[in-house]
Design brief:
By secondary structure, this protein is of the alpha+beta class. The protein has two domains: 175 residues, Ribosomal Protein S5, domain 2, CATH 3.30.230; 133 residues, Alpha-Beta Plaits, CATH 3.30.70. Helix content is 34%, strand content 23%. The protein has eleven helices and eleven strands. The strands form two sheets. Strands 1, 2, 3, 4, 5, 6 and 11 form a seven-stranded mixed β-sheet that branches. Helix 1 links the parallel strand 3 and strand 4. The two termini are 38 Å apart.
Length: 328
């Protein structure tokens, strides 16, 4: 085991899950980030949170990052009950962009690095999948790229696809929260064989299209029968966006995770700036007609997963170290 660093710093990408038919099985990392600093405290735990996305996050030992870090220490057979934790995030909370997954993955990687990295990335993936109860967001944030994965309650497995550089992602983030628990509560407990076959066919085509670069097939592949029809009433305007976004230049469109964020895939090589502006306007205007204000962001798939950073100045605060990298 290597010597223990005084502080560790990690950078964690956001993620989108499902991509339509890949319910709890597909995830993709996005170039929107959270940063975590962690060190062993001498006397008592301190938690410092920076940024507007941190409103309401606990700053005591009920904090998710602290709790996950302690799980890493227990698994590794060490004790560090007191920690100094700092976090800044550009990932909005409870909007379907993997905010909880990024916190879980960031805490796992930071705590593991703090004690000399005794646990493998696969062991961290197993822990993350168990904590999140599905592997899509956590797998994407941990490994980067596009993740196809399953978790059977005991073990998670995944394969990673590197999206082509021409793929861009437009997200429309409504200015209201939608708790994942609420979004899951509206789902049926059983589904028909017809709907199951529908999704198996569509998710298979979607993975094949992304793996082979056949982006012309995405518009057919991103349809879903398992969760989006049931969640649409929670997000006014969503059904219209799902039905018509391809008419305005999207390769395909889906609810991002449990929502309320909506996501459109775009082929940057085949889309003009005017075409991108038209799609962005369509998403915003469709939500605005329902009285919903939304922020739109152009993002890219993130090829790198969670990184342990080594270039930070230990004499500076986290926010000083990441100045120039954050969106705010």
């Amino acid at each position: 085991m290597s010597s223990q660093p005084r502080s560790v710093y990690v950078k964690v990408p956001a993620s989108t899950a499902n991509l339509g038919p890949g319910f709890d099985a597909l995830g993709m990392a996005l170039n929107l980030y959270a940063w975590i600093e962690m060190s062993v405290a001498q006397d008592r735990t301190t938690i410092q949170l920076y940024g507007d996305q941190m409103d309401g996050v606990p700053t005591d030992k009920s904090n998710l990052i602290y709790e996950v870090a302690q799980q890493v220490f227990r698994k590794a057979g060490v004790e560090h009950p007191e920690l100094n934790i700092s976090m800044y995030s550009d990932i909005p909370l409870t909007r379907g962009l993997g905010s909880s997954a990024s916190a879980i993955v960031g805490a796992l990687v930071a705590a593991n690095a703090l004690i000399g990295s005794p646990l493998s990335r696969d062991e961290l993936f197993q822990m993350a999948s168990d904590l999140e109860k599905h592997p899509d967001n956590v797998g994407a944030s941990l490994f980067g790229g596009l993740i196809a994965a399953f978790w059977d309650g005991e073990r998670a497995e995944h394969l990673r696809i590197e999206p082509e550089d021409r793929l861009e992602v437009l997200v429309a983030i409504p200015e209201f929260h939608l708790a994942t628990e609420k979004a899951r509560h509206v789902l049926p407990t059983t589904i028909s064989m017809k709907d199951a076959v529908f999704n198996v066919g569509h998710v298979s085509l979607l993975v094949a299209a992304l793996a082979t670069g056949r982006y012309d097939m995405i518009r057919h592949a991103m349809k879903d029968a398992l969760h989006q029809p049931y969640r649409a009433p929670l997000i006014p305007g969503m059904s219209d966006i799902l039905d018509r976004a391809v008419e305005h230049g999207a390769l395909g469109v889906a609810l991002s995770g449990a929502g309320p964020t909506l996501l459109a895939l775009v082929d940057a090589a085949a889309t003009t700036p005017e075409g991108k502006a038209e799609l962005e306007r369509f998403l915003r205007d469709t939500l605005a007609r329902e009285g919903i204000a939304a922020t739109t962001l152009w993002l890219k798939p993130c090829g790198e997963g969670t990184q342990v950073l080594t270039h930070f100045d230990p004499l500076c605060t986290l926010i000083e170290n990441i100045k120039g990298e954050v969106r705010a």
